[in-house]
Amino acid sequence: QVQLVESGGGLVQAGGSLRLSCAASGRTFSGYIMGWFRQAPGKEREFAARIRWNSGTTWYADSVKGRFTISRDNAKNTVYLQMNNLKPEDTAVYYCAASGIGGTSSKNYDTWGQGTQVTVSS
């Protein structure tokens, strides 16, 4: 059974940092694109960052570029999202997802984690 499990969310003050982890199990994600999405209350789920598992190539939404860094550890089958200089508008549930296609649309991702809450206070 394929499973993605996020961890690392929490409450942080504006300007602070958090590192989210996404542990993958059930299969190897070689050849896949791993993405981080987020959804704030009352808003649609939006793309934040993604990484091609094999090459490590990364892409970012403009809203997080320069502040967030996505990476992966092949040995641990884990994807990370390092979030620095957090802002109140980063408050959301963050989801890890896997796709054979990639892109910024959540519809392209067929495996999802349960999400982890990130709250940034001003």
Structure description:
- The protein starts with a strand and ends with a strand.
- It has no helices and eleven strands.
- The chain is mostly beta strands and 122 residues long.
- Strands 2, 4, 5, 6, 9, 10 and 11 form a seven-stranded mixed beta sheet that branches. A four-stranded antiparallel beta sheet has the order 1-3-8-7, with no helix packed on it.
- The model has no long low-confidence stretch (mean pLDDT 95).
List the helices and strands and how they pair.
Blueprint (H helix, E strand, L loop, with lengths): L2 E5 L2 E4 L4 E8 L7 E7 L6 E7 L5 E3 L7 E6 L4 E6 L8 E8 L11 E2 L3 E6 L1
Parallel strand pairs: 2-11
Antiparallel strand pairs: 1-3, 3-8, 4-5, 4-9, 5-6, 7-8, 9-10, 9-11
Q: What's the average pLDDT?
A: 95
State the end-to-end distance: 40 Å
Structural class of the secondary structure composition? mainly beta
Rounded radius of gyration (Å): 13 Å
Task: Compute the number of helices.
Answer: 0
> Main beta sheet, described?
7 strands, mixed
Order of helices and strands: EEEEEEEEEEE
Q: Strand fraction band?
A: over 45%
Low-confidence stretches: none
Question: How many strand units?
Answer: 11
Helix content: under 10%
Quaternary state of the chains: single chain
Overall shape: globular
